Amino acid sequence: MKELNYYLSLPYSLKIYLVTDDNETYYKITMPQLPGVMAFGETLKEAVFDLTGAKKIWFKKCLNDGINIPVPSDTDN
């Protein structure tokens, strides 16, 4: 089984959204291959920082529970 740092180093694709909701604007980032991994921030930098923590938590949970973690492929865009 691979370790946490292996998965953190992989180039997963991101979807970045600029959301305006109730006169509030923020960034939302999702990772389509990793269900439930998402992050938010008032700036893109904040959202990326939040995403780093979200990925780490998600990967740790999968590794602890023995859940298969998908790896990115050349066709992921």
UniProtKB/TrEMBL annotation:
HicB-like antitoxin of toxin-antitoxin system domain: residues covered: 19-76
SUPFAM superfamilies on file: TTHA1013/TTHA0281-like
Domain of life: Bacteria
Annotated protein name in UniProt: Type II toxin-antitoxin system HicB family antitoxin
